[in-house]
Structures are given as C-alpha cells and as structure tokens.
Design brief:
The complex is a heterodimer of chains A (111) and B (146). With 111 residues, chain A is an all-alpha fold. Chain A is built from three helices and no strands. Classes of the chains: A mainly alpha (111), B alpha+beta (146).
C-alpha cells in the first residue's frame, strides 16, 4: 500500500485572518474566539446584504406607486424588478437560516 | 447574479415584442386615413429586429455584454413605401379629378398576423423568465430540509 499520491497532512492555513476590530453584532460575540475571526466578515456580509435588499425594496415601492398612479412606461420591467427583489430577499433569508443552523450546531457541542 | 442575466435577456426580448405590437396597432389605427390635399398619405411602419452583437463563447465576456444590454435583440422602426390604395368615391370631398380617394396602404391581415405572433413570442419570453426564476428559487433550497 503506497500513499505516494496523497498529499501529506500538514498545518492548514487560516481561512480568515484574525481581526481585533470591533464587532457589529452580538451574535458573533457568543460564538467565541474561533468565531470572532470569521464573525467580522459575516457581520459585514449580513448588514451589507440587508442594506442592498432594503434599497431594492424601496426602489420597488417607488415603482409600484408610479404604476398605481398610471405612469406606466414599462410594465414588464416593474414585474422583473419585483421578482429580482423577491429572489434577493429569499437569498438573504436562506443565508440567515444556514448561519443559524451552524451556530446552533456549534452550541450543541458538549463542553 | 446569474438570474439577472436571464431576466435582462428576457426583458430585451419582451421590449422588441411590445414594440411590434405597438407598431401593428398604429398601422391598424391609421388603416383608413386618406391622403392630404398635398398628396401625403400614411405610410405603414415595420419593425426590423436584429440579433445582438456577436456573442463570445467566453462566459465572463458574455456576462459583461448582458450587463451592458448588448446581448439581446435590438429593433428599429422603418416605414414601408407602398403605393396608396385607390378607392372610387366621386362624392368624397378629398377625391381627385377622376373621383378616386387615396387611402393608406395598410394590410389588416398582415397586421393581425403580426399581433398574434408578437403575443406568442411575448408569452414565450415570459415562460423563459419564469423558468429562470424557478431554477433560482430551487437553488435556494439546497441544504434546506436537513
């Protein structure tokens, strides 16, 4: 039995450089020191994603108001933008679900 | 965002079909207009749609083209020069010396066929967009019921 084709197991490089900067959410605090290094990136991802989705929703509101007022220049464009917003919102929801599941997985570990 | 590409492409197709319907409606509305005293008569319009720029095989370049709106079809409107329809109406105020009145040369059959084909093409674009949206929603189900 030869193991020449398998790369030797060595130290794995850290995925995210540990950062000492302040954390945006308290959820990252509870995860612990290992979570802290990747918690900052996640917090920025989540808040940035929320910002983008809320901007899209506001643009949608403006479109719908103009549609209700009768100022329709492109009906299918309005519908397409609504679908895009809905997809972004669903994506954000699923990201939140996955993050929660991973967090609960970590918390379930025996001490 | 891959689904935005599919949406943008379908939107470009739907724009062309909507333009086709508008032009057919315009032609039908002006079907029975007569020539003016100076001889100017309504010339029916036609939509000429061209495919987008030459599509590259490279995925990144294709995405860049779609985001700039150059991958979908583009349409221009041009008028068709056809001789006017002559109808014999001696009592008409705008009849010429021989009693003929010149009407716009609009063929209702052609316009109705354009309407029907444009409607079907529009529905096909909507079906393509719905398929892209369904795929994106299914992709969000990955790892859902674990």
């Amino acid at each position: 039995m030869t193991t020449g084709f398998l790369p030797p197991v060595g130290a794995l490089a850290p995925l995210v450089e540990p950062q000492v900067a302040g954390l945006a959410t308290s959820g990252a605090d509870e995860v612990g020191p290992i979570g802290r290094s990747s918690g900052v990136a996640f917090a920025e991802l989540v808040s940035g994603g929320l910002q983008r989705v809320s901007e899209q929703l506001q643009a949608n509101q403006i479109d719908l108001q103009r549609l209700a007022a009768g100022d329709v220049e492109n009906l299918h464009q309005v519908m397409l933008r609504m679908e895009e917003t809905r997809l972004s919102f669903q994506l954000m929801l699923q990201v939140r679900n996955r993050l929660l599941e991973s967090y609960q997985e970590v918390m379930r570990m025996q001490v | 965002m891959d689904y935005r590409n599919a949406f943008a492409i379908s939107a470009a197709g739907m724009n062309v079909e909507r333009l086709r319907v508008e032009i057919a409606a315009l032609n039908l509305a002006n079907a029975n207009t007569v020539a003016d005293a100076d001889g100017a008569v309504f010339q029916p319009l036609r939509v000429v749609a061209r495919a987008g720029t030459a599509l590259p095989a490279d995925r990144g370049a294709f995405n860049a083209l779609v985001s700039r709106g150059l991958a979908g079809p583009s349409a221009i409107v041009e008028s068709v020069t056809r001789p006017a329809r002559q109808v014999l109406e001696p009592g008409h105020p705008l009849a010429d010396a021989k009693g003929f009145v010149r009407y716009a040369a609009v063929d209702p059959t052609t316009e109705m066929l354009s309407l029907m084909s444009a409607t079907r093409a529009y529905e096909a674009n909507v079906a393509a967009m719905n398929a892209a949206r369904t795929m994106a929603m299914k992709a969000l189900d990955i790892g859902g019921t674990s």
